[in-house]
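step=predict obj=Jg10800 protein n=115
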Amino acid sequence: MLTSTYRSRSRRELTFASDSDPFDSQEVEKYIIGEFGARACVFERVCAHYATRARSQPRPQMDWSDVFRQYKRSPDQAKELYLLSVFLGDIVGSPQLCHQLGKRRGCDDTLLANI
């Protein structure tokens, strides 16, 4: 290990130094379709909520009780897509990507009307 190239874990953490979005929504969309099928969609509101949270508090502790409570209240056809939206927002941390995916492949928000 070269000390001149080594970076501590804290410096390797995801930072949001600029507002430019490094993600290509078309590529992300292709990946989602490849993994989840042609009917896959993203709940923009859910994705953006967790993305905004990830930006304001890098590496926050996930409120698992809330995530699972809302998951259980989701209709069966929306459960997997709800979790996709949660994790996409939390991991990628890009409200802009959530918005772009919501425009391109947005889920019907009435499926989550009770959430």
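step=describe
The chain has six helices and no strands.
step=end
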